[in-house]
Design a protein that fits this description.
By secondary structure, this protein is of the alpha+beta class. The chain has helices spanning 34-37, 46-65, 72-86, 97-105, 135-138, 160-167, 223-236, 254-262, 307-317, 396-407, 421-433, 444-459, 465-478, and strands at residues 2-3, 22-26, 93-95, 110-113, 116-121, 124-130, 146-150, 153-154, 174-180, 188-193, 195-198, 202-206, 211-216, 241-245, 270-276, 281-285, 296-300, 322-325, 333-339, 345-354, 370-371. Strands 1, 2, 3, 15, 16, 19 and 20 form a seven-stranded mixed sheet that branches. Strands 5, 6, 7, 8, 9 and 10 form a six-stranded antiparallel sheet that branches. The longest helix is centred in the N-terminal third of the chain and has 20 residues, at 46-65.
Length: 479
């Protein structure tokens, strides 16, 4: 079976969760050294045998001559980690027993963590997408944010696994992150309180004009079943058009996205193709005959990755449906995972996935048919002041406060980061309506209220320009 199409995730910060279209193959290993040098059968080319002999000699030398004590497991784990690291592939990874157990448990119904998917990009830990409703999203983290420090400790020089080790921690604990956001010159500090992250992957509702919306936050084990139920209910309610929303969806199970595609892709057309290193291609086609009677559009953004991109590309190329939003992430590889008898796990990139037209979107993404960018205020990080923000000061936090106030309709006279008299007046107006102490300063309570009001504003469908574009487009097509 193919498993979740994701980059390394921080959904479970007590874990290292690895991404992306993984095929799990359970198999025993041929002994402790066989885990490093291959199957202990004596088969293989001369070069392979020489390399195995070299590894065995190094292992034997360390065990017999090294002055310190070293455990067999540490040597084997280090050897495998070294080989995987030499691949320079962010989607291939080795997990020890603990990490592998947490990886498999990631298919459960809830997790503890900050709720963000991360990968290694240009040597920096980079957010693919915060999970909807997670502490990471509420704190203002966005796709492409780069995490440079955690609680004052630099992540420079660490691999992704080591970086995640710095970030993880128990529920209720704080991760103070130093963030560099593309397009901004100043380093930001964002404190995220780790929490339990429930995994509810399907949310559906009927919008204006009988346009249905199904939001898929990730593709997990029950997603296809829940999608079918939501789709059936919307159709029974007289839906005239369907918006599928995979914005911020970092991926998931390949077989699940194929099941969903099978309900939408018309006339037995292609859903996805997989191509191995020899160029051999396996094609998955829909079994659906005919076509849905209503128009369909899919919403994507730069946080839509892997399985989300498979669905978007299939709807666009095989279904003839519209893709709306922003260019997607660009994750186009397939991994296979092997469980060893000691509970550890090796995940390895073994194939590409291609769109129905044979395109490889890796590092390119899926391009929308109708491009709609989010407003500038989407990039705002809600304030988390260590001391109250007040008049006649200037900072990035003040600028973020001004942008939030403007977004909420409180009309500060400027958004350049200088705390002016009018900014103070706007803060007082906000505090009065929120039943807070009216001081004109942004203290901890005011900052928290601003964050909550801002998040609620972002959630409101009428304020979602991408969603509204999709709804209006489908209304016209439905007529």
């Amino acid at each position: 079976m193919y498993l979740r199409g994701r980059t390394v995730t921080l959904i479970v910060i007590v874990a290292v969760l690895f991404s992306s279209l993984t095929t799990v193959m359970l198999a025993g290993d041929g002994g402790i050294l066989a885990r490093v040098v291959g199957v202990a059968t004596g088969q293989g080319s001369n070069i392979e045998m020489e390399n195995q002999s070299k590894i065995e000699q190094a292992y034997s030398m360390i065990k017999s001559q090294y002055i310190g004590d070293v455990k067999d497991e540490a040597l084997v784990d280090g050897a495998i980690e070294g080989m995987v690291g030499a691949l320079d592939d962010p989607y291939s990874a080795y997990m020890d027993k603990e990490a592998a157990q947490q990886f498999h448990s990631s298919l459960d119904s809830s997790f503890e963590g900050i709720g963000a998917e991360v990968t290694m990009k240009n040597g920096l830990v980079t957010i693919v997408s915060p999970i909807k409703g997670s502490p990471a999203e509420k704190a203002g983290l966005r796709p492409e944010d780069q995490i440079l420090k955690v609680n004052g400790e630099s992540l420079e020089g660490l691999d992704l696994r080591g970086a995640v080790e710095k970030i993880r921690g128990p529920k209720g604990s704080k991760a103070k992150l130093a963030i560099m956001r593309p397009g901004q010159s100043e380093l930001m500090t964002v404190t995220v309180v780790r929490d339990e992250i429930p995994i509810e992957t399907i949310h559906s509702e009927m919008m204006s004009g009988k346009i249905g919306r199904i939001e898929i936050t990730q593709f997990s084990q029950e997603t296809a079943t829940d999608f079918t139920k939501a789709l059936d209910q919307l159709e029974k309610d007289g839906m005239k058009g369907l918006v599928i929303d995979v914005r911020g969806n970092p991926g998931g199970l390949l077989n699940v996205v194929e099941e969903i595609g099978n309900q939408l892709i018309p006339n037995e057309k292609t859903i996805v193709m997989k191509q191995d290193k020899e160029g051999n291609t396996q094609e998955t086609k829909s079994t659906m005959k005919g076509k849905k009677e209503y128009p369909i559009a899919i919403l994507i953004d730069k946080g839509s990755a892997s399985a989300s991109e498979i669905l978007a590309a299939a709807l666009k190329e095989s279904g003839g449906y519209l893709v709306i939003g922003e260019n997607s992430y660009g994750k186009g590889t397939v991994q296979t995972a092997r469980d060893f008898s000691d509970g550890s796990n090796l995940k390895l990139t073994i194939a590409k996935w291609l769109t129905p037209n044979g395109k490889w979107i890796h590092k390119k993404g899926v391009k929308p048919d109708i491009e709609v960018k989010r407003p500038d205020y989407y990039q705002v990080v809600p304030p988390q002041p260590e001391k109250p923000l007040q008049r006649d000061t200037a900072s990035t936090e003040v600028k973020n406060v001004q942008l939030i106030l403007k977004t909420l309709g409180y009309r500060p006279d400027r958004v350049d980061g200088y705390y002016s008299d009018q900014t103070e007046t706007a803060v007082k107006a906000f505090q009065k309506l929120q039943d807070l102490k009216v001081t004109g300063e942004v203290d901890e309570k005011t900052a928290a209220a601003l964050q909550e009001a801002f998040i609620e504003h972002l959630k409101e469908p009428d304020n979602d320009v991408q969603l509204q574009t999709a709804i209006e487009t489908l209304k016209k097509k439905a007529k």
